[in-house]
Structure prediction request, 797 residues.
Amino acid sequence: MAPWIKWFEEIRLEDLPHVGGKTAALGEMYRALTPKGVRIPNGFAITSEAYRQFLKDNKLDAALKEILSGLDVNNVDDLRKRGRELRMAVIGGGFSPEMREAIWKAYEKMGRCDVAVRSSATAEDLPDASFAGQQETYLNVHDDRVLLESVRKCFASLFTDRAISYRTHRKINHLDVSLSVAVQKMVRSDLAVSGVMFSIDTESGFQNAVLINSSYGLGENIVQGAVNPDEIYVFKPTLREGFKPILKKELGSKEIKLIYDVGGEKLVKNVPVPPEDRKRFAISDEDALELARWACIVEDYFSEKHGRYVPMDMEWAKDGITGQLMLLQARPETIHSRQRVDVLNTYALVEQGDVIIKGRSVGEKIAQGRVRVINNSADLHQLQDGEVLVTDKTDPDWEPGMKRTSAIITNRGGRTCHAAIISRELGIPAVVGCGEATDVLKNGQYVTISCAQGEVGYVYEGKLKFKSEQTELLNLPKTKTKLMMNVANPDECFRLSLIPNDGVGLARMEFIINQFIKVHPLALLHFDNLRDPRVKGQITKLTAGYANKALYFVEKLSQAVGMIAAAFYPKDVIVRMSDFKTNEYANLVGGRDFEPKEENPMIGFRGASRYYHEKYRDGFALECQAMRKVIQEMGLKNLKLMIPFCRTVEEGKRVLEEMKMHGLERGKDGLEIYVMCELPSNVICAQEFAEIFDGFSIGSNDLTQLALGVDRDSEIVAPLFDERNPAVTRLIEMVIREAKAKGKKVGICGQAPSDYPEFARLLVKLGIDSMSLNPDVALKTRLIIAAAEKEFGVSAL
Prediction:
């Protein structure tokens, strides 16, 4: 007779038929990864043979088959009725004395401690059937009677409505699937925190990042989408080298937490989280880094075991008594791991509309439909095919109806909640954690849902035009001219990095400051001296959780730049230091107290002249601190820095000295610093600029305006603005020639090569090293450049 009990240290992946996918992975990790420092709570499995024996002892096989006969899973009422009959039949069964004694003896060996009782189906976690959340888990189980009751409920959960529907649509025979139960020592995260993490970005499929979600209390709230958790990204390649590359930290609202119901009628209960705890991150940076290291260890182990790349989906918890982190379970990620990597699918809105509500985007698609607000899974029969499901949150009971929707919108939940997982699996977009979607959106209202604009998902009023494209990547031509991208938004960078590219030729710091920081750096440094109470209130709100307000600027800027540098690692990412004009700086929160009023800001106090001037040098110091953090703490040494609007060589030297004073020394540890070529003086003195900088990036917009004396925003003289004017092209030819004579790199980061094919051809003929383009035209321009290189006899790499 096969054993009914197997301890984790006895279990291997090959035991999946006996203990199910979840517990097979758990046992494999406990045996192989505990010696590598991954802490996993011990436990045992009640095997699938015990489940089969339970059915046999209670003569349930024939009864279950009869109840399942003629089932129509698309009929929600029929599914619900039969599912209830199946579960009641199993729950009504009893354990033989031998099986009961075997379970109790194993529990006694564990010391009758508090345990988690987790279902583990023998068909789960297969490459094409994740079964995530299909069966039940019971927490804080702490006596013999409740343990047996929980095991019986786990057996019955093989026949929840969502599990029956799931198997039917994947053509898996219900009676071919068995169930094992894992009994695992509880981690007292009810007194601390818990969460979910993926060793891959769940939206773009970017493979070099670990995504960690965390919230207070037991972990079921995150999985079920009951809370909006904190979100942290960690970069794997430099983490492995010993750096601390926390790329992004996003604070969640974390309104409730699941704890033990001590002295109550239930095993666990939800209670409110104190307001002060909601405003801080649930885990420390050191905890996040340790979890990310474990994610790398787990991913590496299972990838080696399977002989292919296997990204992992993991659950973790921190014990509030011991203070130790523990890994609770892991399973293969089943969405991006099976997608084609030789095809790029992109979606984009082609017209704008009014944003009704927004949240966190799931998937990268755009969808449309009429709203259907549903507050209870019992009302799913109201949902019509192609409608947009709007609800507070979903759990596995919602799955039978979710496949009929065109998109999903929820009030609560993060990227690892149930609604997010299922929407990815179904290939439909979702916007989760919107807050008030069920109040704001109305039945029958037509909306457009866009998850194609980065990490923020938008719900627009009405039916907006959009486009979708599929590009085969294998047949794209290679070019000698490097094709880089202009990237501004760090929320989009993981997705954009999948477009064939040679790195980032221009990342504009001012976009990040404007969109993500919003506050003038000097207003943060001199917060106590600000006169306007309204401005102080705005800054206080934006910098919540930061005792040192200047640290807010450094952390936000370093994380945003770090995201871009990580997305394209190890390719070059060139970040231009801030290049706001004074009127633009003044529009930042608190900026008016620190900016002069100028008649002509375009050629005024901007770019390099600010960095060493007493009116801004303290602000520039914060920029330098952030860049130093990206390079030295995160280990992203592919980051290159660029100085804009540098009028004279002497000014360039002063800026370099200022940067050196803040730990950014050109040439040290391979740091390269470039200069924008956007002034005629940069061209005329190109040889001298080449002596102090590592290369040039031609800013064709400003160079054209200053060469022709044209303001391109003036409707009267704007028609004279043309990068193809001989005055401009001769300046470009001169700087390319001078740069090459000095052995320095030279590229261009304006739009002209994509707007004018003949301009791109000229640049190829002149031998430019790189062109940096907006992502939406990168693939089209690659074909133009490849043809030009062929025409001029330039050999592709």
Residues 285-306 form the longest helix (22 residues). Residues 154 and 245 are 40 Å apart (CA to CA). The chain has four domains: 5-185, 190-338, 356-471, 476-791.
